[in-house]
Amino acid sequence: MADPRVNGGQSAPPRRLSWNDPDVRSVVYQVVAVALVGIIGWFLVSNTLHNLSIRNISTGFHFLGREAGFAIGESPIAYGPENTYSRAILVGILNTIRIAVIGVILATIIGTVIGIARLSKNWLVAKLSMIYVEVIRNVPLLLQLFFWYAIITEMLPGPRQALNVMPGVFMSNRGIKVPAPTEHFAFDLAAIGFLLAFVLIFIMVNLAKKRQDATGKAFPVYRGGILLLVGMPLLGWLIGGAPWELDVPKLQGFNFVGGATLTPEFAALLFGLVLYTAGFIAEVVRSGIQAVNYGQWEAASAIGLSRSQTLRLIVLPQSLRVIIPPMTSQYLNLTKNSSLAVAIGYPDIVSIANTTLNQTGQAIEGIMIIMAVYLSISLSISVFMNWYNKHIALVER
Amino acid sequence: MKLLATAAAAAALVFVAQGAQAGATFDAVKSKGFVQCGMNGSVGGFGAPDAKGEMKGLDVDLCRAVAAAMFGDANKVKHTPLTAQQRFTALQSGEVDMLARNTTQTLTRDASLGLIGAGVNYYDGQGFIVTKKLGVKSAKELNGATVCVQPGTTTELNLADYFRANKLTFKPVVIEKLDEVVGAYASGRCDVYTTDVSGLASTRATQLPNPDDHVILPEVISKEPLGPLVRQGDDTWLVVVRWALNAMVEAEEYGITSANVDEMLKSDNPNVKRILGVTPGGGKALGLDEKWAYNIIKQVGNYGESFDRNVGKGSPLKLDRGVNALWNAGGLMYAWPIR
C-alpha cells in the first residue's frame, strides 16, 4: 500500500506500474533476489548431481537404512555393528549433546567462580585466576585435549594395577569405574522424585517471594531447596522398597566388568572443553560485573548488605544483561569445539558421520548431516538464550 | 582440522567444473609436469618420511614408477599424506591424481565411490598385535578386549565381523590419526591394535619403543589386496598406473634390475627387448616414451628390489615375501605380459 500520508489519508488513486513507485521497485528487487538465489541453488545442486553421476559416485540417503557394520566405543542407547547407519548417527548426535550439556553446565559454574575470583580483594586469589585465564585462553584447545588424554592414558596404570581409590571405585587407563545401581524401579522413582523436586522448588521460591513482599518475612529457600533435592529422590527410593544391590565393577579378563564408566576419551574431552571455555566465561563474567556501576556497590553497602550479598542480590542480576549475549556465543563455541573429539577418539557426531561417509563414500551427504546437526543444536541454544535474555532484560516502567 | 579438510574436499566436489571428463587426468598430469600422489605418510616401509624427510616406501616407489613412466623422471612426484578418512574424498575431488596408500581393493570402492583399482602391489591380511605380557596366544582369547583401530577402514568392519562371527565382545577405541592410535595402544589404553599384518609389522619396527615386547597373533582374519586407485573416467591414466606396476613385477621376473638394466638393453630375449623398449611399440601404445619401463627400472628398480629395500630383508620391517613372491616362486605376483 502507498503511504496514506502522501494523499492526506485519502484512498489512493488507481495506480499505474511505474519504476518510480518505491513499492513496485521493492517488489521487483525482491523477486529478482529470490530468483537469483533460486538459480544459484539450482545450479549448485544440478551441477553437483551431474558431476557425481559422471564420476559414478552414488548419491542419496539410502545408505542410512543399511547395516553400519562398525562398532562404537560408547553409546547412551543400545547399539551394535548390526544396527543401521542412521542409528549410528543417532548415537553420535546423543554423544555430542551429552558432552555439550554437561560441558556447558560445568564451564558456567567454573567460569563464574573464576570470573568473580579475578575481582577478589585477595591478591593471591586474583592473580592465580588471572594466570589461569591467560594460560588457558592462549593454548590451542587441540593441544589441551591431547594433554589431558595423555595424562589419563599415560599416567594411570593398566586395569590390572588399577588404583582402588574407594571401595568399588577403580581408576585405570580404561577410565574411572564406579558402582552403579542395578536395574530396579526404585531408582526410576528416585529419578522422578529428583525432577519433581525442581518443580516444587520453583513453586516454593514463588510463594516465598510473595510472602516476603506481603509480610517482609524471609523464608529459608536455600535450606528448603536442598531438603527437597535430597528428600524427594530418597522418598521415591524408599517407596520403591529401598533396594541395596549395586553393580560393583570387577576385574574379569582384560578389563573391569559392571558398574558405570567414565571413559578416558569422554573425560579428556570434558576436562579440555570445560577448562578452556571456563577461561573465556570468566572474562565474560568479570566484564559483566565491572559493567555494573560502582555506585551500586556503595549504595548496597550503605544499606548494610555484605559484599557477598551485594554480589548475589544487586550486582550479578544487573550484570546478567551484559553477560548473557557473549555467554551464548561461548556455549555455541563449546558445542562446536566438541567436534575436536575426533582427534582423541570420542565418538561424537563428526567422528561417526566421518566414518559413515568414509565407509559409504558419500562425502556430501555426510557433511550435510554434520552441518544440519550443528545448525540445529546451535539454533536451539540461541533461541533458548535469546528467550532468557528477554526474560531478564530491564523492564522499563 | 580434519572436518575442515573433508568439508573442503566435499565442497570441491560441488564446485568442480563440468568439463572434467575422460582423458582429463592423463592430460592434466602431463601438462602440470608431476604426479600428485596420495599416500599414507606414517606407515614406515610403505609411505613415510625417512631421516632426511624424504618419502620412502613400497607405495612411494609405485608413485615414482608412474612418474618415471610419464616423464622419464621418478622425482616428478608430489606427495599428499592422507588419513584413512581423507583418502577417497581427496581422490574423488581431484586433490590427488592417484592413491598409493595401503588401500584395500573392494567392491564398494570400485562400484559406488567412482574409483577403480589399478592392481595390487601388496597382498595382505588383517591381524592383531598385543603386548607379550598379556599372555594371549590367539585372537580367539580376545573376548572383552579393548581394541584400537582406525576409522573408515575395511579393518574396522572386519574387526566387528570377526568378533560377531566368533561370539566375542570387544570395546573399540577409534582414533583417526595413525600416530595417535598407535600412541593409545602403546600407552595401554587398548589391549590390542588391529590393522593389516604389514602395518602391524611396520608399527612394531618403527613406532613402538620396545619391538620385542609385542607379538603379532597368528590369526589373519581377512584378505586385504592393497593397491593403487584412480578416479573412474580416464582409462588412459588407469592403464598407465596399472602398467607401471606390471612393469616392475615383469622386470623382476626377467631378472632386470636397476643395476643391470643398461646391460639388458643388449639382451637377445624378445620379452626383455619389448619391456625395455628396444622393440618399439609398447610405450607408444600407452601414449608414453618407448623407454617408459626402462626409466622405471633404472630409477626405481624392479618389484623385488623395491620390496627388499622397503619392507623386506633390507629394511627394519623384515617382512617375508610370502604370498608376495612371484608366481613362479609360489607367490601371487603375476604381471600381465608386456607385449
Automatic annotation (TrEMBL), chain A:
The keyword NAD does not apply. One of its GO terms (cellular component) is ATP-binding cassette (ABC) transporter complex. The chain crosses the membrane at residues 26-45, 97-119, 131-151, 185-205, 226-246, 266-285, 367-388. PROSITE patterns: ABC_TM1. Belongs to the binding-protein-dependent transport system permease family. HisMQ subfamily. Residues 93-385 form the ABC transmembrane type-1 domain. This is Amino acid ABC transporter permease. GO terms for biological process: amino acid transport. One of its GO terms (molecular function) is transmembrane transporter activity. It is a multi-pass membrane protein. InterPro entries: AA_ABC_transptr_permease_3TM (IPR010065), ArtM/GltK/GlnP/TcyL/YhdX-like (IPR043429), MetI-like (IPR000515), MetI-like_sf (IPR035906). Keywords: Amino-acid transport, Cell membrane, Membrane, Transmembrane, Transmembrane helix, Transport. It comes from the Bacteria. It is found in: Cell inner membrane; Cell membrane.
TrEMBL record, chain B:
It comes from the Bacteria. CDD domains: PBP2_BztA. One of its GO terms (biological process) is amino acid transport. InterPro entries: Bact_solute-bind_prot3 (IPR051455), SBP_3_CS (IPR018313), Solute-binding_3/MltF_N (IPR001638). Residues 34-264 form the Solute-binding protein family 3/N-terminal domain. Residues 1-22 form the signal peptide. The keyword Signal applies. It holds the Pfam family SBP_bac_3. Keywords: Signal, Transport. Belongs to the bacterial solute-binding protein 3 family. This is Amino acid ABC transporter substrate-binding protein. It comes from Ferrovibrio terrae.
